[in-house]
Write a structure and sequence with these properties.
By secondary structure, this protein is an alpha/beta fold. It folds into 2 domains: 265 residues, Aspartate Aminotransferase, domain 2; 99 residues, Aspartate Aminotransferase, domain 1 (Alpha-Beta Complex), CATH 3.90.1150. Helices cover 44% and strands 14% of the residues. The protein contains 18 helices and 13 strands. The longest helix has 23 residues. Bound molecules: pyridoxal-5'-phosphate.
Length: 439
């Protein structure tokens, strides 16, 4: 039986219905039910404003007006204050970090320069960002459009865990460009009032990225679909934002072009320190909607309720480390150096893998950005090649589907790339018959 909604949720829903019927209609059942309880949080906030002598509200420990701490922990983090290492962070994240990340997004996405939008919300890595979006927006049976080549976690989360119905289009067309016709067709097949779309450029697993024209075509298709009365949540996975190596592709997120494209389209950018700041395990991600003011306050309250029920906030220490690093004078320079290293590897991987001598063995999917290059093996089963590569050469790759083999050149030194690619060629050639795919 459906529980009655809490009065705070009812009030918030009414507000959202008035402020943005589109966002309200995209909310999942949980999204409609969730709210941030006022109890303890409100009582603590009141005390901060009014109590001038003793504060016995918070579930923390204080001594001599400071957080109590252990020297054995503090010594490990000498450059951070006890507060910035060990205090509870705000549910939606450290405000200074959110402000800095917003500035970072603006700088990297010039189309957003004069657009007012909310502060990004901090999540425990990008995966939690997706999970929060799934809670807020996805009901079992909702339609999600994904390409056939994807980061596998999307299916695990949206389909297996949340019960979304996934419709796929083939990522590449026959000339190995983004399959805009297939994308459009899949959109137009949907007659539901609500649609979820997930876009990811630079792309995992291929490293493909879109040109300005392709980006505009994608946005136009989404606008056409919205014109038919559909409300659309577009999730933009920008895990590899910034790692564009090729001048022919757009060096900006498609999120910028989606912002304000149609009143029925709600874009949300999911990005993070994970790859951009080379801080995979710190688990700092961000969710950015293109709203401001009251609509965003409503969404933030819903997000706070959801975050409160799982991690209760991303780790304070991780947020403080990223914040401090981003303010450091060496930050830009160090990032530039790493970028150059990855760019050199990307170019080398492409040059070697596309060598004519391998043309009979595989086709290389176009790769302009990110961490990966991906081979489409002509006659071999990718999983069998992967296993032989591992057992005979001790080389690890990822097999995807029947014939795709993903190489993360991001974790190979420049001079190791050739060895890996030539080992793949040797495996494919020496086991050609055994590994043939039934064509
Ligand atoms: C396309 C894509 N999105 C998201 C992520 C995950 O990000 P996080 O580690 O911050 O959860 C990855 C990680 O490999 C990825 O490839």
């Amino acid at each position: 039986m459906m529980q009655p909604l809490n009065p705070i949720a009812v009030e918030l829903n009414e507000l959202m219905k008035n402020l943005s019927p589109v966002v309200y209609s995209l909310f999942s059942d949980l999204g409609k039910r969730i709210y941030l309880p006022k109890g303890i949080l409100r009582q603590s906030a009141e005390v901060q404003e009014k109590a001038d002598s003793l504060n016995a509200t918070r579930a923390i420990a204080i001594k001599d007006n400071q957080l109590m701490s252990l020297d054995v922990l503090r010594q490990l983090i000498p450059d951070l204050s006890v507060e910035s290492a060990f205090a509870y962070p705000p549910i939606l994240g450290n405000t200074e970090l959110r402000t800095l990340w917003q500035a970072h997004i603006r700088k990297e996405n010039p189309l957003l320069e004069n657009i007012e939008f909310n502060l990004p919300v901090v999540t425990s890595g990008m995966t939690q960002g997706f999970s929060i979006l799934a809670d807020l927006f996805v009901n079992s049976g909702d339609k999600l459009i994904l390409p056939d080549m994807i980061w596998g976690n999307y299916r695990l989360l949206f389909e297996t865990k949340m019960g979304a119905e996934v419709s796929t289009y083939t990522f590449f067309n026959t000339v190995k460009k983004f399959n805009i016709d297939g994308f459009k067709r899949t959109l137009l097949e949907h007659t539901d009032e609500k649609l979820l779309i997930l876009l990811n450029f630079p792309h995992n697993p291929t490293g493909y990225s879109i040109t300005e024209t392709e980006a505009s075509e994608i946005v136009e298709s989404i606008v056409d679909c919205a014109d038919c009365g559909c409300n659309i949540l577009v999730m933009v996975d920008d895990a590899y934002a910034g790692f564009w190596y090729d001048s022919e592709v757009m060096h900006e997120s498609i999120f910028s072009k989606l912002v304000g494209c149609h009143p029925n389209v709600v874009p949300v950018k999911i990005d993070g320190a994970t790859k951009e700041e080379y801080a995979w395990g710190l688990r700092v991600g961000f969710l950015t909607f293109a709203f401001k003011d009251q609509v965003m306050s409503g969404i933030e309250e819903k997000l706070s309720g959801i975050i409160r029920t799982n991690t209760s906030g991303a780790a304070q220490l991780s947020q403080s480390i990223i914040l401090k690093a981003m303010k450091s004078s060496n930050y830009e320079e160090e990032k530039r150096k790493n970028y150059e290293i990855l760019k050199t590897r990307a170019e080398k991987a492409k040059l070697i893998a596309t060598n004519k001598k391998y043309a009979g063995l595989w086709e290389v999917y176009p790769s302009h950005a990110g961490y990966f290059i991906c081979l489409n093996l002509r006659l071999s089963n990718a999983e069998k090649v992967r296993q032989a590569l591992l057992h005979e050469y001790g080389i690890g790759t990822i097999s995807l589907g029947e014939r795709d083999l993903r190489i993360a050149y991001s974790c190979l030194e420049e001079d190791e790339i050739e060895e890996v690619i030539s080992a793949i060629a040797q495996i494919v050639q020496s086991h050609k018959i055994e590994y043939s795919v039934n064509l």
